[in-house]
Amino acid sequence: MLSKQKILALGLQHVLAMYAGAVIVPLVVGGALNLNGTQMAYLIAADLFTCGLATLLQIMGSKYFGSGLPVVLGCTFTAVSPIIAIASGSNLATAYGAIIISGLFVVLAAPVYGKLLKFFPTVVTGSVVTIIGLSLIPVAMNNVAGGQGSADFGQPRNLLLALITLLVILAVNRLTTGFLRSVSVLVGLVVGTVIGYAMGIVHFSTVTTASWVSVAQPFYFGWPQFSITAIFTMIIVNIVSMVESTGVYFAVGKATDQQVEQKQIVNGLRSEGLAIMLGGLFNAFPYTAFSQNVGLLSLTRVKTRNVIFAAGGIMVVLGLLPKLAALTTVVPNAVLGGAMIVMFGSVAASGMSILSDVDLRKDGNLLIAACSIAVGLGSAVLPSMFDQLPEFARMLLQNGIVSGSLTAIILNIFLSKTQESAVPAAAAPETK
């Protein structure tokens, strides 16, 4: 039985693992829309606050809402370009009106989507989980080099710092046992940050300038306005997120050794729809299951939901206390990159473990896995190949997880002679 202190430490580890992915969305959107400092600070605080609420909604589980799986929710990067486009063409109120309605669509469409899970047999889920891990590797490597677009991108000190962080995580994971082993990523992040401070990379200016308290306000940027085009755009974004989240649920099921039921996925997607509506209400963002945290479940071997409860609570507090939230931003990108190598690699390895239960010599399984992984990884590494396509097609194909998933589903329909039950197979594959 874990003590409260240990649960909080493990929860903080999950928050740090997803923090960069969570705050990059408000930073990019706010920067593109030329928001002032006060508005940017609100956007980040509201985002963290709603991330926490969304995670708590997901983990609690009830008759109709919440998967009950140890899943962390964060804002989807797929929504960045559409939000910027909508707000630039009209205003932010129109973007948030579209987010609210699209969230309602997800709530209502979740049961219908659940009926499509028969198209996710073991070979598809294994391919999708593998794609999730592999498509995140470029993100990790960008951080290892210092962060895409940073002035010191690729500097030897960044590579060294990432290597040290990685080695610390590996050493703690292999040489220790019990609780210390379960927080190996947190130890690596702390050690890496301390070394980064000694190297002059860590700065606390954002902490000193951040305010102490910020309360998320409904309709901070004005009452929502509605546009059919904007609503349709955000619905497409959230359909993409539903496909992505399905892969995450399967990956979590594999990482936690439990059978993921169709009802859990439907209830999880309903919660995501509700979280998206909250994002529109508090002028934050659409939310989806974060694949960044799946690797931690495999790595730490701690599968209790209490840890995710703690992570959700910590994010709520960070959203209310911007100065404390700013403290978590001092972790250098290179340090995060070193930790991401382990976490994202663990997700890919989980996918390969699922595929190991599939007979790749029959029913076109080899072609399904090979083509879907290749397409998904290719889309993630080179999304610019789709720049000349219409906006709708770009949103689908530039997301490696979605393009790879669609490839796997379509090929499975045409190449596989049998349709096995998808959801139980994701947790305990039996078909050979």
TrEMBL record:
Identify the keywords attached in UniProt to this record, alphabetized. Cell membrane, Membrane, Transmembrane, Transmembrane helix, Transport
- Tell me where it resides: Cell membrane
Q: Which residues cross the membrane?
A: 7-33, 39-57, 64-87, 93-112, 119-139, 159-176, 183-206, 226-252, 307-328, 334-354, 366-386, 392-415
Q: Which domain of life is it from?
A: Bacteria
Tell me the protein's name: Xanthine permease
Task: Please verify whether the record's keywords include Cell membrane.
Answer: yes
Q: Which InterPro entries match?
A: NCS2 (IPR006043), UacT-like (IPR017588), Xan_ur_permease (IPR006042)
UniProt family annotation: Belongs to the nucleobase:cation symporter-2 (NCS2) (TC 2.A.40) family.
**Topology in the membrane?**
Multi-pass membrane protein
Task: Specify where it is mainly localized.
Answer: membrane
Q: Does the keyword Transport apply?
A: yes
